[in-house]
Amino acid sequence: MHYMLETYEVAMKLCGLDPNNDEEFEDSEKVDEILYEKYGIEDTDGFDRLIKDLAKMADVGKSPLTEELYRGFGDGTIWLYKTKS
Predict the structure, then answer these.
(1) What is the pLDDT of residue 4?
(2) For position 2, what pLDDT does the model report?
(3) Is the Cβ–Cβ distance between 49 and 59 less than 8 Å?
(4) pLDDT average per 10 residues of sequence, the chain (85 residues)
(5) What pTM, to 2 d.p., does this model score?
(6) SS (H, E, C) the chain
(7) Contacts from 22-29 at CB under 8 Å and sequence distance 24+?
(8) Environment class of 31 (CB within 10 Å of its CB; exposed 0-12, middle 13-18, buried 19+)
(9) Distance CA 22, CA 10 (A)
(10) What residues does each domain of the chain span?
(11) Distance (Å, rounded) from C-alpha 12 to C-alpha 37?
């Protein structure tokens, strides 16, 4: 296990598991299985690499025209993916 605890907790939430449930928390094989079924990611280490790369691109911004808040991923100059917040 080379991933961080926070990444594991995010993975658990996305997998519909409760990080506060000791039995579910200790079943890393179940987390890996669900990550693969749901997203095609083979293990929590792979998820950790993905989430770290995505976190660098995560952003929140307000449209100057509509004043609506958006969150998504960008390269610092343009949105690559956004959704209303």
Answers:
(1) 87
(2) 62
(3) no
(4) 83 95 92 96 93 95 93 93 94
(5) 0.80
(6) CCCCHHHHHHHHHHCCCCCCCHHHHHCHHHHHHHHHHHHCCCCHHHHHHHHHHHHHHEEEEECCCCCCEEEEEECCCCEEEEEEC
(7) 28/1
(8) buried
(9) 15
(10) 5-55
(11) 13
